[in-house]
Amino acid sequence: MPSKPCKRVKPDNYSIGRSGNRGFTLIELLLVLVILTILAAIVVPRYAKRSEQARITAASTDIASLEAALDLFEVDAGRYPSTEEGLEALVEVPAQLENWKGPYIKRGVPKDPWGNPYVYTSPGDNNSNSYDLYSYGPDGKDGGDDDIDNWSER
């Protein structure tokens, strides 16, 4: 019996023009990279801005917590720690202080969210009856609009 000729099967539309290789073309890869770059350009600045705002909020919260601890110190000792005693007086009893009932903060004196120590002076230049307490803020430099302090409106 004579054999019938085989029917030729057409390739599906996906593989037309691809020489049988089902990988991505260079143009497709470049298009994906362009789209990802555009998305990153939109998302990253928003995330960075929120991250910086979260640090500013954390510094304000730290300052409020330190203020509460300093007020407790003042109730017990009858005065705020001196500039020389600093915020360490909230953790360790200062020399020749009898009424210290601390520690007034549990985990030691925190650093600000940028890794710098909080600045404490008593009496303060801005709060002459008590103390000044502030962070240098994101730029890490004294002065400027980005400092976070206990005398400005929050």
Can you tag this structure with a few keywords?
154 residues, mainly alpha, Glycoprotein, Type 4 Pilin, 3 strands, elongated, transmembrane helix
Beta-strand residue percentage: 5-15%
Strand order of the largest sheet: 1-2-3
Low-confidence stretches: none
Measure the end-to-end span. 97 Å
Number of helices: 1
**Helical content, roughly?**
25-40%
CATH class value of the domain at 65-154:
Alpha Beta
Question: What is the string of SSEs from the N terminus onward?
Answer: HEEE
Form type = elongated
CATH homologous superfamily title of the domain at 65-154: Glycoprotein, Type 4 Pilin
Task: Quickly give the CATH architecture of the domain at 65-154.
Answer: 2-Layer Sandwich
User: How would you classify the helix and strand content by structural class?
Assistant: mainly alpha
Over the alpha carbons, how many angstroms does the gyration radius reach?
Answer: 32 Å
